[in-house]
Amino acid sequence: MTPASWPCPLPAGGFVNELALCFDRNRAARLLIVPALFDEGNKLRRVTVESMRRLDAAGIDCILPDLPGCNESLQPLDRQTPEVWRSAMDAAATQFRATHVVGIRGGCMFTPQGLPGWHYAPVKATSILRQMLRARILASREAGREENREDLTRLAREQGIEIAGYPLSPEFWREFEPMIAAQNARVIEQAEVGGSGLWLRAEPDEAPEQADALAAILTWGVTG
User: Fold this and answer.
1) I want to staple 37 with a disulfide (CB 3.0 to 4.6 A). Which of 106, 139, 148, 151 is the partner?
2) Domains in the chain, ordered, with CATH?
3) pTM, whole model, 2 decimals?
């Protein structure tokens, strides 16, 4: 596994280098992985990378790009929009010559169209935002402040907001809030992978048996 730099388009034109983790041996089968979003991305990072190791052993190249403003990206998150993320994943698919794509949780909303692929445990944007708002409300309560979801949602739509440590612009919120994953991908339910979803755990964790199962489903889909 090696990091690779790739040119990510900027909204106003031009490009900026972003990073991707790659198992790239220039093989025919090339799987782009759109990661889970925000805190779920942290909790699912280990199982994602372990699945990539198994896919590599099965003869499939794997690419896991950073979304602009996330992970190792140097771009500010509060300047991103869903359209920027969508364009970034389209560019990554082209740059790495992806033949297939899999989205994970919220990443399913940003999988490039036109590639055969899968959505692993897709989630609506409203569900992601609801969980993040709940985390902020609980943190505020522990600090002796009272906040409620209705007021925070209005603030987010009008001025932007920082929730769960992630600063989001009002443009991001308004565009992201109604989003759902497209219906043109084969859905991988958690029951097929086994066990409970790692995004439900309090801290990032690993589950090698889930990595085995997810990689087996994807390997059969790509090569079968």
Assistant:
1) 106
2) 2-123+181-217 (3.40.50.1820), 125-180 (no CATH)
3) 0.95
